[in-house]
Amino acid sequence: MGEEQKTTTYLEMNNPADLRAKRVCLEGLEIRQVEITSPEFNWFLHQAVGTAFRWGGREDWTRGEWIAYASRQELETWVAYVRGAPAGYCEMEKQTDGGVEIKMFGLLAQFFGQGLGGHLLTEMVERAWELGANRVWLHTCTHDHEHALGNYLARGFKVTDEKIGPANRAHKSVLFAPPKFI
Fold first, then answer.
1. 57 φψ region: left (φ > 0), alpha (ψ -120 to 50), beta (else)
2. Cα distance between residue 167 and residue 56, in whole Å
3. What is the DSSP string of 67-122?
4. Left if phi > 0, otherwise alpha if psi is -120 to 50, otherwise beta: which for 125?
5. What are 64-87's pLDDT values in tens digits?
């Protein structure tokens, strides 16, 4: 058998007028910025959302690496809460070329199918434009939720590139087994 492949799709939006907003009305929904650096919380969100989709690349990060990542001025972390429970999140990064990259974006599984992904993405794209972005961009792959690409396209993102390559190996992190933060 051959090696498993995945398709990575790169998308961008170049004008705030291209955003096709989607809003939902969920009881107790609020979206808040994480204003105090909390590497443990960034780790938790990455694990809680990404483990099912084999998000890789951070399994072996130390506490120092998480602190360095989460505390960078160009990074913003936003969390969607529904009645006090974290429902999804977004990490966005201001780039030196004036763009804003949506680095991580997703929902916890119990919040799928409620329209929250479109709502959160709308809010995050609006925030990127507020930051003075000259473009907003991201990438997704065939490991992400089956509706991820459709959500990005429905919000007005355009495909700029597509690459096929080897899939991530099985995710080495175990949900709720944090790196050595102590």
1. left
2. 10
3. HHHHT-TTEEEEEEEETTEEEEEEEEEE-TTSEEEEEEEEE-GGGTTSSHHHHHHH
4. alpha
5. 888 999 999 999 999 999 999 999
∠ CA 135-47-141, nearest 5°, is 45
**Global pTM value:** 0.88
pLDDT-derived band at 58, boundaries 50, 70, 90 = confident
Find out whether 136 and 12 touch, Cβ atoms under 8 Å: yes
Q: What CATH class is the domain 5-166?
A: alpha beta
Bridge-based pairing of strands 135-141 and 99-107 is parallel
Strands 158-166 and 29-33: unpaired
How many Å apart are CA 132 and CA 121, to the nearest integer?
Answer: 17
Domain coordinates in residue numbering, the chain: 5-166
Nearest alpha-carbon partner for 113 in 151, 155, 142, 84: 151
